[in-house]
Amino acid sequence: MSIATEVGLIAGRELRRNLRSIKGIILAVLALLGTGATTIVVDWIQKKIRQEMQAEHGLTADQLNEARKQILVKALGEDQGNYFASLPELLMAIFQVTVWLGPLLIALLCFDGLPSDVQHRGVRFWTLRAHRGSFYAGKAFGSWLTVSIVTLAMNVLVWVVAGARGSAPFGTCLSWGFRLWLYSLPISAAWCGLATLVSSLTRSPIVSLLITFASFFLLWFVGFAIAGVTDNEVLGYLYPNSYDRLLMSVKAGKMMTGLGLCAVYAVGTTLVGTWLFARRDV
Amino acid sequence: MSAELAEVRDPETELEPTGDGKKAPREIVVRFNSVTKRFGAKVAVDNVSLRIKKGAIYGLIGPNGAGKTTSFSMMAGYLAPTQGDVEILGHAPTNVDGLRGRLGVLPQDALLPGADRVGEFLVHMARLQGMPKAKAEESARAALEEVEGKEWWMLRCSTLSHGMSKRVALAQALLGEPEVILLDEPTAGLDPKVAYEVRQIIKRRRGKTTVVISSHNLQELEEICTAAAVLDRGRLVASGAMSELTAASSEVRIEIQPPLGASSPYKGENLPLAAIQQVVGVSGAQYDEIAREILIAFERSKTDAETVIGASLWILLQERTRISSVGKGRGLEQRVMDLTE
Predict the structure, then answer these.
(1) Mean confidence (pLDDT) of chain B
(2) So what's the pLDDT on residue B21?
(3) CB of A130 within 8 Å of any CB in chain B?
(4) Contact between A1 and B130 using a beta-carbon 8 Å cutoff
(5) Coil, helix or strand for B179?
(6) Do B110 and A1 touch (CB under 8 A)?
(7) Which candidate from B113, B127, B130 shows the least CB-CB separation from A122?
(8) pTM to 2 decimal places
(9) Pairwise CA distance, residues A208 & A202, whole Å
(10) Is the CB of B77 inside 8 Å of chain A's CB atoms?
(11) Would you say B99 and B91 are in contact if contact means Cβ atoms under 8 Å apart?
């Protein structure tokens, strides 16, 4: 049996386990309710701001869109500005919320995947039949698949709400929404890899949850807060959420850099975790 | 992996007397080579070497802290030896590709995944053994039926009782009829009827499958095992065929009762011990007044237990001695007590 088949079987089971567990269902419901509510609130605020701006400056909706496009071109350059001009503001706002809250969802989904099996020794049913590395990678991949499905469901809800409230044409919502979901995938892969590695270092799920939160906070503090204050670009690369700018770039080189950084995180953490797990007594 | 053997070796063989004066090779399927396992300063298993032959039902025996579970865990690949190496069918236990579908293990304290349905869990395990989906389901149903749990297919593992969980875990160890099965306390916590059924499942594999059982239940091990190793404080204190361990092939015990109406037991001088000692092959006969037992030792190269029993009973009955029971050897329990004191 190939390693890929082993990983696929274990990831598939992990996906089913996550989506059927009480924790998984509660998280999915909360995520969807939160997304729906946030979408409605953000949409209401954005519409109000647009109305006020139109009234204040005496602009039509098309003139306001054109002004927005000019601002984007000035801030991001010709190509990038034009690319973002057609992106509905609501979708962009929700994408940012999703990316920034993603680590929370990932930490809550991933923290017990491996530690609970090690703690209760259920892992012993698998170690005869699958390489330790496959078991580990299957768990990490399964967690990422779960997160991807939950975020897809969140995105679909946003498209439907945005389309129904007339925030943007439905086709535009669908086309941009799908792209934004694709942009979020490498970032969530990086976080899932990290969460699986950190959580695998302990046998106790509750300790793993705490150290996962602690490590995520540390990354935010160093890669976002300190990097922002000191304007240190290198430190900024520590924080996977900052890769969205790279991934959404119209320049292929930048986009590949973003993809590469996410891959380094996701694959690197999985390789390290696999290596450590293969050497552990279970 | 560092613990894995670099290359697959053919299972080695040893010469084994066949009973007709010839010797034939018999495969060694489980091998411990000077294995030591330390947990910090504590030595759990100390330089243990073992050979388990193909088709044996082999017991790992010893008191708490003897190193049974640690030895078992190294056999199953859960723990890596600190020194020495373990081989199963010529492979390191962590060599998944070499042992896939050939080794089944019932871990003692591993929890089944609570959210999984029984059938789904077993099919998943069978698929990881390399079976296609249809074959995996067929094999899972067969294994579940063997442990008398075919109606549990759709139950969630979290809803199973302790006994049911144990049998489902046993079913996963039996999936695909592996060549070697390792069972850690297979009947612990089971009611007598289910424990009996589990023993029958194990007995049915005698001679076909190599089964290694780690257990505290010495009566059970004596009943089902063909060979065993006795561990004490991490060291191997005895190993061999069950008949050798219990001295069943060199000792006979005859329990006697006082004559009708007599309140005190026999005195040794009243028993025909000298006559029994004259039986061909008998090397000694002693009477234990407290246990009310005659212990007859014999040389197995000259006679066998059945001949000694027949001759001794003939002599005793001629003297109208009242006989309560006859047994071969001392019993595993007594033997283990002697070895681990």
Answers:
(1) 87
(2) 62
(3) yes
(4) yes
(5) coil
(6) no
(7) B113
(8) 0.82
(9) 6
(10) yes
(11) yes
B42 shares contact with chain A (CB less than 8 Å): no
What SS3 class is residue A50?
helix
CA distances from B301 to B14, B221, B297, B328 (A): 22, 26, 12, 16
- The verdict on a CB contact (< 8 Å) between B125 and A129 is yes
Instruction: Indicate the domain borders of chain A.
Output: 3-26+92-278
Go through B307-316 and write b for each residue having 16 or more CB atoms within 10 A of its CB, e for each that does not: bbbebbbebb
User: Among A184-188, B42-46, B267-271, which is the least confidently predicted range?
Assistant: B267-271
Q: Angle, to 10 degrees, between the axis of helix A78-85 and the axis of helix A61-76?
A: 150
Confidence check: pLDDT of B15 > 60: no
Quick one: pLDDT at residue B20?
62
Whether residues A130 and B128 touch (CB distance < 8 A) is answered with yes
Asked if B100 and A129 come within 8 Å (Cβ–Cβ), the reply is yes
Average pLDDT in chain A? 90
Compute the distance between CA of residue A270 and CA of residue B4 in angstroms, rounded to an integer: 21
Phi then psi for residue B330, to 5 deg, are -100, -5
Q: In A165-201, which ranges are continuous DSSP H helix? A: 170-199
B85 pLDDT above the threshold of 90? yes
The strand pairing partners of B293, in sequence order, are B255, B288
| CB spacing of A279 vs B2 below 8 angstroms | yes
- Over the stretch B126-162, which tens digit does the pLDDT of each residue have? 999 999 999 999 999 999 999 989 899 999 999 999 8
The answer to whether residues A262 and A243 touch, using CB atoms and an 8 Å cutoff, is yes
A170-198 confidence digits (pLDDT tens): 888 888 989 999 999 999 999 999 999 99
Of chain A residues 20-59, which have a CB less than 8 A from chain B? 20-21
Q: Which residues of A touch B99 (CB under 8 A)?
A: 128
Q: How far is CA A21 from the centre of its chain?
A: 21
Cα separation, B331 vs B222, whole angstroms: 8
Q: Residue B315 contacts by C-beta under 8 Å, 6 or more apart in sequence?
A: B272, B275, B276, B279
Q: Nearest-CA distance from A36 to chain B in Å?
A: 29
Contact between chains at B96 and A129 (C-beta distance less than 8 A):
yes
Q: Residues B172-197: what's their mean pLDDT?
A: 91
Q: Which of B53-67, B84-98, B237-251 has the lowest mean pLDDT?
A: B237-251
Q: Does B4 touch chain A (CB under 8 A)?
A: no
Please say if the pLDDT value at position B9 is more than 70: no
Q: Does B265 or A193 have the greater pLDDT score?
A: A193
CA dihedral B118, B124, B126, B128 (to 10 degrees): -150
